[in-house]
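TASK: fixed-backbone design
INPUT:
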């Protein structure tokens, strides 16, 4: 998919991966509409910011209509907005679960359904869903977040098969640990100290964004970034019980460190 001159709607654009993506897409000559609750966190000439709470279906629909009107069409939808919660399944509140599910899963599916008539009519375009390495390998300290992202990954893969021969492509993005404000912005709970110390292994959002743009340009099925994520995914496929035991033990240690 050609980035230059493409009409792109990007959600979750204010910080982290979204901000790096917006700047890189802009540098490649894309026409951008950026959606987030906190807008104008940086300046991109020609880009339109739209403030919206994507957990609200009405605000999603309004933001999408405004974006299409401003761009006079749409070529690429990038569903990047998402949020986490460090809460065990037995303790999570209904409100937190509803928020996770609405933003991480229902919002990208809704926006995709709004975009598809346009893309199918022009027989070209891309739907890019930012999932997580947790969509490939569930993380027990993040079980319900992993669940929403695994569902989004499944949706992206299924949609790809639905759209075969239509000219419309899907790209699933599965980032690992990226240096973003994600942990600080979780809606409930705090990342244990032991987990926070692993930040030194994280990649920059600029590296992640570069891999995403490359994936869009090549119509890549699944973008796993950094490359080391492939080894974790392969290990889980080949030795699931071993990975389960390791992560379960690691999770117990995280819980102890949080006491």
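OUTPUT:
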């Amino acid at each position: 998919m050609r980035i230059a001159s493409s009409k792109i709607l990007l959600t979750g654009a204010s910080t982290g991966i979204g901000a790096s993506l917006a700047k890189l897409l802009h540098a490649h000559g894309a026409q951008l509409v950026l959606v987030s609750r906190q807008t104008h966190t940086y300046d991109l000439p020609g880009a339109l910011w739209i403030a919206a709470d994507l957990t609200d279906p009405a605000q999603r629909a309004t933001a999408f209509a405004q974006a299409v009107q401003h761009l006079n069409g749409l070529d690429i939808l990038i569903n990047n907005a998402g949020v986490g919660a460090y809460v065990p399944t037995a303790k999570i509140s209904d409100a937190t679960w509803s928020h996770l599910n609405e933003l991480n899963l229902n919002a990208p599916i809704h926006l995709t359904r709004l975009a598809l008539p346009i893309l199918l009519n022009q027989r070209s375009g891309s739907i890019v869903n930012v999932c997580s390495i947790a969509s490939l390998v569930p993380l027990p300290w993040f079980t319900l977040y992993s669940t929403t992202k695994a569902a989004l990954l499944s949706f992206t893969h299924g949609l790809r098969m639905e759209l075969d021969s239509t000219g419309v492509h899907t790209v699933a993005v599965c980032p690992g640990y990226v240096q973003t404000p994600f942990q600080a912005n979780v809606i409930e709970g705090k990342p244990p100290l032991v987990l926070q110390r692993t930040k030194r292994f994280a990649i920059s959002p600029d590296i992640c964004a570069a891999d995403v743009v490359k994936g869009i340009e090549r119509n890549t099925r699944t973008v796993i970034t950094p490359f080391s994520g492939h080894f974790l995914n392969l290990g889980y496929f080949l030795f699931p019980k071993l990975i389960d035991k390791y992560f379960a033990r690691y999770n117990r240690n995280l819980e102890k460190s949080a006491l």
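COMMENT: Residues 173 and 223 are 5 Å apart (CA to CA).
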